[in-house]
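Supplementary Methods S3. Input chains for the assembly prediction are listed below.
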Amino acid sequence: MDVGDRAALVTGASRGLGEQIARKLAARGARVALVARHEDELARVVDAIRSAGGVAHGIVADVGEKRAPHAIAAAAAALVGDVDLLVHNASTLGHVPLRPLLETDCEALEEALEINVVGPLRLTKLLAGPMVLRGRGLVVHVTSDASVAAYPGWGAYGASKAALDHMGRILGAELEGTGVRVVSVDPGEMRTRMHADAIPDADPATLLDPAVVADRILRLVGNVEELATGARVEASAYAAGSS
Amino acid sequence: MKPATWPRDTPLSERLLRVDPTGGRWTHHVVGDLPDLLRPGDLVIANDAATIPASLFGSTTVGERLEVRLATTSDESTWQAVLFGEGDWHTRTEDRAAPPPVVPGDTLQLGDGLDATIVAVDARSPRLVTLRFSLEGAALWTALHRYGRPVQYAYVRDWLATWHVQTAFASRPWAVEMPSAGRPITASLLASLRRSGVAIARLTHAAGLSSTGDPAIDHVLPFPERYEIPRETASALARARAEGKRIVAVGTTVVRALEGCASEHAGEVVPGRGTTDLHIGEGFVPRVVDGLLTGLHEEGTSHRGLLHAFASEPLLAGAWADAEARGYLAHEFGDHALVLRAA
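Predicted structure tokens for the full assembly:
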């Protein structure tokens, strides 16, 4: 997908990977709606994009809140136009510090599912329908290797990301032939606040810069037609210089 | 015909009355039969406008209660709006109390942080005003979704929320009442229509208020409504028309946008934005549209009047009476009709 002159929506866009994806989409000519909970942080990113000549609008909302997606979809379409690229980047770890499942409050699991799985589906339902009418569009799920590997302590998050992955596969199968694609991408371990919350003593030198990962994801978006619909891929496959 | 009093959630099994104006016949189906009722090459055009929660309840600065219904906009912070007095949809609009009088400069409180200032009062009715919101951009859209509700209907059994009125393919929030003909069309139905060779295209039309209960305002409805026709839709139309394929509008709003555009461009549908206040009824000869998918609306309504451009009243009356006897349901959440020539 060529993102130039397209409208895109990125959740969790006020920092980390979401911020970098939004900035890079705007730099390539996309009109970007950025969604995040915190107004000040969001305004900082929106202002930076605009200062660089990009088109960006911030929508203050919590994707885990049941009524939020309707306002998000309406505001985005009103401000940036028909959304052709939806990036589900916002997510929550559940308990911080992480806890084993037997010590996880079930409410924390429910919250993780609400923000990481149900909220994205609510938004996809609103934005992928018009994509089907237009016969084009892309939904990107940002996932994690915790959806595949069994890391102790990552139960709520890992289970929610595994659900997201599988939802992506099924959506992909259901949208086969409509021109609307779904892809899940594992970004790898990044220097983000979320990673610091999960593993405070990680050596930063071993972690990826989210800006580098965002470049990889944009490369993936640019070549998404090569992938089977519903595919789950690793962003590292799109590292600069890799084929 | 009895109205459907609540949205149903199995749209493909809602009933579909197929009316053939050339043969003077009608037959009974369900929405899921649409791929069989249309032919490969037919071009179906839907209105992708999302419905704004255009009804806001609030008060004047001295505490008088009122309802504001947004009607048309020029820049998304400034709206033409209709005011209603105390009460809600449980009372028919024509029986609603008059709103408190307002003058330019008055402020209406419509939600926490959401105010509107009266900019002008229309000479045609003291209830028809221009107002400017205190918010703009994303903050205005989020506030409208927090405090607003979709325009309600007196025959519906409970408050409707935004999700009850959006079509499956609603995108930009332009409509102040739902473009309801598109309601039964799911993403799966769109896909199966395409698989059977039916072409699908879209436009955006700002469906306006259907009635206000104020004769002075209803007399001039519909207000000029904005629309946008994408380039790819104009091309698909030109192709289909050149090949003699049928053009099927999903709803009266699509008919108004296409015929309104054609009436201003010597019969051609050109891409881009426009506004139309075209009244379509008996005697109107459609230049673009061959037929439409529509809800079932009663004689005397503007919806029904528009159908006269496609089928004679005796045929419609006969088909409607038969549908009513068979238990079809009317209005925004009711059953459906496909009025389309067979050949």
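The two ends of chain B are 29 Å apart (CA to CA). The longest helix of chain B spans residues 252-264.
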